[in-house]
Design brief:
By secondary structure, the chain is mainly β. It has one domain: Rubrerythrin, domain 2, CATH 2.20.28. Helix content is 0%, strand content 33%. It has a four-stranded antiparallel beta sheet, with no helix packed on it. Strand 2 and strand 3 form a beta hairpin.
Length: 46
């Protein structure tokens, strides 16, 4: 589980609320809130 403000690592993450995919390019990128619904929790997308 990744939350807004954390650095979960590069990869794709899926919003727990609406399913929007967020792509982090770098291990130092911080997780933003979901641009679609402002949710703050995500799961690693497969």
């Amino acid at each position: 589980m990744a939350k807004t403000g954390e650095q979960p690592g590069a990869g794709k993450y899926k919003c727990d609320n609406c399913g929007q995919i967020i792509n982090l390019d770098s291990d130092t990128d911080r997780m933003p809130p979901c641009p679609n619904c402002n949710n703050t929790t995500f799961k690693k997308a497969k």
